[in-house]
């Protein structure tokens, strides 16, 4: 199929990707690798490269930093057309969502709408997990679309993008939305609203008037200079930027203190209930029990309690190698209970998530891949080795935030098993208690 010229609007397309039917005259062209003094610079990701480490035959060089998106070398030419905002003029609102926001959500939504209208504005929406952040974006996105602006909603996680896409489709069901991530099989098309992983932003150049980054504290985005550069590169010079998180980093909070970033805060969930608080339990040598084929006593007691109802649960482990030993111990102790393991490189990850949602499975044993961006109704959570260094404060808060997201069951168990009560654990428990104190002050 012939590539439409619009696929180059605000995009960086290589000479190998460009359709041979497109006339190159009049297109903006860049060398894939530029030389600046004694350094090489990748034109796509702006990485500074070393001559000795990035050398190919024939005095050619390539970029190792963004190679996941396809190799950029000295022989590569990147083509683009400046973003023209050639979109439908909306005579009526494109927002088809008819839900209702709470008064607290509406206040945040108004601030978001104002930010999208301001040139070069930067704003942090700090809302607890389950606060309804996505729904608070709808009115702002609506106003931006009607103002002929191009909007991007980006996230570091593929899972989050896959979750967000159908929700945006339902909320704006009269417009085309493009979904981009590394596992996507659908071809790119020029649309006014884009949902993508932050890695995919490296393919854009000054394309978006409004840039929204969800889960801004999540791996691999947090403190990743390459992805920070991608966000800046994909946003127009006078574009607005909104960062969403339940667990802002110290760097983001510093930006707030220095007045480089404005902030909205919502400490209560969409259904008006507070966050479930963490219960810490102690059991020494739990790993040794797992290696011997036995589950820790505290976990067995909790599962026996959960078996009195039909709700699903997640068991988090700190290391991938623990998945199978824990699974085998589960099968031995609870042979009639259906469950699976899941991790970031699991090819069946999405199907397993669907299976637990549909009730085909009762539980998943998981790494931190399910710490955020996925929603399950009526969930309980158990964390093995919550004191392990793998679990950051943000990760523990996000894990706890998987629980109580259903209006019909706003509570649930959040059990953290550990050997030592570490500073990280204390901070996570303290952060949730602080949020809940703020929520109580709202008297909702």
Q: What is the rounded Rg?
A: 24 Å
Helix fraction, binned, reads: 25-40%
Average pLDDT rating:
91
Overall structural class, as computed from helix and strand content, comes to alpha/beta
What best-fitting shape do the alpha-carbon axes yield? Answer: globular
- Percent strand: 15-25%
Distance between the termini: 55 Å
Strands ordered across the widest β-sheet = 11-12-10-13-14-9-15
Largest sheet: 7 strands, parallel
Number of strands: 21
Uncertain residue ranges: none
Number of helices: 11
Write the layout of secondary structure elements.
Elements: E1 13-14, E2 28-31, E3 33-36, E4 39-42, E5 48-49, E6 55-56, E7 60-61, E8 77-80, H1 103-117, E9 122-127, H2 133-146, E10 151-155, H3 158-171, E11 177-180, E12 193-197, E13 208-213, H4 225-234, E14 235-245, H5 250-257, E15 262-266, E16 279-282, H6 286-291, H7 297-306, E17 313-316, H8 323-333, E18 339-342, H9 349-358, E19 363-366, E20 380-384, H10 393-400, E21 414-418, H11 423-442
Parallel strand pairs: 9-14, 9-15, 10-12, 10-13, 11-12, 13-14, 16-21, 17-19, 17-20, 18-19, 20-21
Antiparallel strand pairs: 1-8, 2-8, 3-4, 4-5, 6-7
Helix pairs in contact: 1-2, 10-11
């Amino acid at each position: 199929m012939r590539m439409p010229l619009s696929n180059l609007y605000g995009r960086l397309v290589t000479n190998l990707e460009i359709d041979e039917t497109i006339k190159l005259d009049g297109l903006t062209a860049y060398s894939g690798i530029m030389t600046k003094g004694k350094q090489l610079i990748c034109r796509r990701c702006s990485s500074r490269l070393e001559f000795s480490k990035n050398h190919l035959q024939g005095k050619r060089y390539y970029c190792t930093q963004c190679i996941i998106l396809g190799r950029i070398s000295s022989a590569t030419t990147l083509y683009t057309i400046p973003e023209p905002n050639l979109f439908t003029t909306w005579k009526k609102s494109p927002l088809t969502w008819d839900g209702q926001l709470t008064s607290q959500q509406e206040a945040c939504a108004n601030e978001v709408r104002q930010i999208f209208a301001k040139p070069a504005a930067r704003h942090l929406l700090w809302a607890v997990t389950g606060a309804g952040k996505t729904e608070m974006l709808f009115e702002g996105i609506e106003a931006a679309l009607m103002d002929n602006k191009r909007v991007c909603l980006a996230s570091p996680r593929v899972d989050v993008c896959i979750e967000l896409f159908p929700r945006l489709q339902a909320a704006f069901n009269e417009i085309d939305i493009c979904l981009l991530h590394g596992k996507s099989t659908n071809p790119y098309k020029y649309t006014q609203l884009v949902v993508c992983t932050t890695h995919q932003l490296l393919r854009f150049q000054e394309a978006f008037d409004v840039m929204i980054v969800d889960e801004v504290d999540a791996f691999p985005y947090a403190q990743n200079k390459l992805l920070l550069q991608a966000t800046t590169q994909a946003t127009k010079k006078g574009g607005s930027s909104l960062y969403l998180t339940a667990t802002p980093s110290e760097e983001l909070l510093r930006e707030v203190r220095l007045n480089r970033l404005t902030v909205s805060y919502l400490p209560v969930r969409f259904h008006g209930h507070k966050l479930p608080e963490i219960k810490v339990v102690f059991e020494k040598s739990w790993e040794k029990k797992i290696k011997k084929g036995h589950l820790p006593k505290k976990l067995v007691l909790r599962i026996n309690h959960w078996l009195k109802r039909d709700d699903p649960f997640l068991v988090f482990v700190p290391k991938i190698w623990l998945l199978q030993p824990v699974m085998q111990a589960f099968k031995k102790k609870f042979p009639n209970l259906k469950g699976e393991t899941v991790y970031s490189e699991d090819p069946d990850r999405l199907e397993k998530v669907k299976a637990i949602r549909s009730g085909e499975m009762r539980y998943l044993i998981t790494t931190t891949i399910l710490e955020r961006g996925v929603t399950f109704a009526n969930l309980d959570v158990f964390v093995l080795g919550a004191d392990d260094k793998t679990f950051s404060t943000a990760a523990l808060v996000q894990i706890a935030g998987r629980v109580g997201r259903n209006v019909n069951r706003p509570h649930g168990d959040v059990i953290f098993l550990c050997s030592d009560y570490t500073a990280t654990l204390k901070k996570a428990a303290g952060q949730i208690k602080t949020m809940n104190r703020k929520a109580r002050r709202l008297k909702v």
